[in-house]
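USER: Note each token:
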Amino acid sequence: MTEKVALVTGAARGIGLATTKLFIAQRWRVAMVDRDGDELDTAAAGLNEASAFKYDVSLEAEVEEMVDAVRSTFGRIDAVVNNAGVADFGPIEETDFARWRRVMETNLDGVFLVSQAVTSALKVTKGSLVNIASISGLRASTLRVAYGTSKAAVIQLTKQQAAELGEYGIRANCVCPGPVRTKLAMAVHTQDIIEAYHDAIPLNRYGSETEIAEVITFLASDKASYVTGQIIASDGGFDSTGVGLPSLRR
């Protein structure tokens, strides 16, 4: 049986890398895409079923070149995980247009550009799109005027894709991670913030990168063959409770 191929953006670290490894464990081949070439090469080392592609998804010319390179290498694309993103937080009154565009060009423009570029390949395989948004796209939160808005737009984009691409057999779904125990999060979250998140999340803990990857790979698989247009919060129940965190307002 021909192995399926997943294209994962933002694959050099975090959820993207965890998703790559889980795809490989499930006998997929993976095109790992990231603009951080050094980190990408380090992440891809030893992953025999993966190939690294250094491209910036916010740049249209690079996206077109990237998709051509992936198709040339693997011959097909069965699933695309639009995971690349930037987390640039700040108070609304301190968010100038430069910060707004910095967030939008990767978090929203990148998802649009990659999705548009891979559609023809996904028509051939009747493949799937899995867009990574955030719990911040479902509920407003402090310091996230640009980030949260970009992720809310990704949610709507996913619904548009599901509505318009379904006739080609292409599925489109969206995963909204809640607080995840990444190295970056643990480096910037104070103990006060960690405790506040634990209190606000029904499962009383952060999620792991692998737990998010499990949802992503399920949606990309044939097990989810009748699932499209869905927005799934993988957040320990965070979306079901309260609003905001006082610790983030101080």
